[in-house]
Every structure is written in structure tokens, then in C-alpha cells.
Design goal:
The chain is of the alpha/beta class and 216 residues long. The protein contains 8 helices and 8 strands. The radius of gyration is 16 Å and the shape is globular.
Length: 216
């Protein structure tokens, strides 16, 4: 099964972001993952518009944005214009998630929904025909360095059952260690957002780490 490896750029070295992008591309990552937070939907702040613009400009790989913000529909076109390829929303953050997902696709972008730990698969079933990706949060959204919440395993199994019918990809975000990558790949997860558990702050080059993760 294919494995999409998506470095979380919030964990990268900000003092030399351009060099980080270059080294990650040379390591053959699949998607650059950008966390956008408003300090309201989640009590933290992530990367900004200028960071997003730079990554889109320098990258030859796909770029996604994970919008942890209220009413993301207000900013969909802005991020599309910056050049992102995939836009994720939390359905509970939007009054009309169907309309927002349709807009993402009308702008020529791929649409994704994020399943927070407290949100059930049943809640998002009506949206599955409108999306290209489901990203399961295996920690509470908004902060790096948390422990994996095993309660999400059942939801991953449920999503695997729906995947072929609706033709979406399943990714996980949070506490994504090499051990979890190996286990969840066998369960049917196709993509992994990589943070400090597997990729960053390891005193090894990305081109050494990424092939090992891909071969797990």
C-alpha cells in the first residue's frame, strides 16, 4: 500500500525554512503539511500566510493546509490563491461544511476533513462523497508532543470500511512514531503527518529517515 509521508512544517527549523524545504524534497517526502490556527478554535497559533506562500513557492511537492480555525470558508480562496493543493477543514468549525467542501473543489483543489478525537465517523458520513482525504487526529488538535489516543483506533477501522465506496485516503496526525506508522499501515492508513515523534529533532538527515519510514 502506498505511504504518504507529510512533514509538519510547524516542527521545522524556522530560522532557515527554505533550506528545510530543500532537504525534505531531496528526501522525497510526499506532501508539505501546514497547520493554521486562530487561537480560538484551538488555543494556540500555528504558521502564517507568509510561511504558506513561501512553502508553496519553493516546493515542487503538494502542499496542504490544516485549518484549525472558525469559519474557514472565509479563507478558502485566499489559501487556494497562495497555491496550496489540499485544504482540510474541521466540519464542526463551519456552519455549512458541505458548501465549503464544494467550494474547495470548485477552486480546483483537493478537499479534506479532519476528524478530532471527540467527533464520530457517523457525524461525517454525509460528507464522505465530497472529499479526497480524511485526516484522523490521534491527539487533541493544536499542540505538538502529545501522546497517542488509542480511542481513535476504532474510528480508523470504520473509515477503512467506507474508503473504497467513497474513494478517499486516510491519514493520521499526531504522535506519529515509527512504531505507529508500521501498525497503522497494516490497518489501512495511507498517510502520516510527521512531527517530532518520527522526523524532526533526530540529529539525522531527512534523506536517511524518510526511506526508513517508507519501508516500515
Amino acid at each position: 500500500m502506498e505511504k504518504l509521508l507529510c512533514p509538519s512544517m510547524m516542527c521545522a527549523k524556522y530560522e532557515n525554512l527554505a533550506e528545510e524545504i530543500k532537504e525534505l524534497e531531496e528526501a522525497n517526502i510526499d506532501i508539505f503539511h501546514i497547520d493554521i490556527m486562530d487561537g480560538n478554535f484551538v488555543p494556540n497559533f500555528g504558521m502564517g500566510l507568509q510561511d504558506t506562500e513561501l512553502i508553496c513557492k519553493l516546493s515542487s511537492k503538494k502542499v496542504d493546509v490544516h485549518l484549525m480555525i472558525n469559519n474557514p470558508s472565509r479563507y478558502i480562496k485566499k489559501f487556494a490563491d497562495l497555491g496550496v493543493d489540499i485544504i482540510y477543514i474541521h466540519p464542526e468549525s463551519e456552519r455549512q461544511p458541505v458548501k465549503t467542501l464544494q467550494e474547495i473543489r470548485e477552486l480546483g483543489k483537493e478537499a479534506g476533513i479532519v476528524l478530532s478525537p471527540e467527533i464520530s465517523v457517523d457525524t461525517i458520513k454525509p460528507l464522505l462523497s465530497l472529499i479526497d482525504y480524511v485526516m484522523v487526529m490521534t491527539v487533541n488538535p493544536g499542540f505538538a508532543g502529545q501522546k497517542y489516543l488509542s480511542l481513535v483506533d476504532e474510528k480508523i477501522d470504520e473509515l477503512v470500511e467506507f474508503r473504497d465506496k467513497y474513494n478517499f485516503k486516510i491519514l493520521i496526525d499526531g504522535a506519529c512514531s515509527p512504531e505507529k506508522i508500521k501498525i497503522l499501515s497494516l490497518k489501512g492508513v495511507q498517510g502520516f503527518v510527521l512531527g517530532t515523534s518520527a522526523l524532526f529533532n533526530k540529529n539525522k538527515k531527512y534523506k536517511e529517515i524518510i526511506p526508513r519510514l517508507r519501508n516500515l
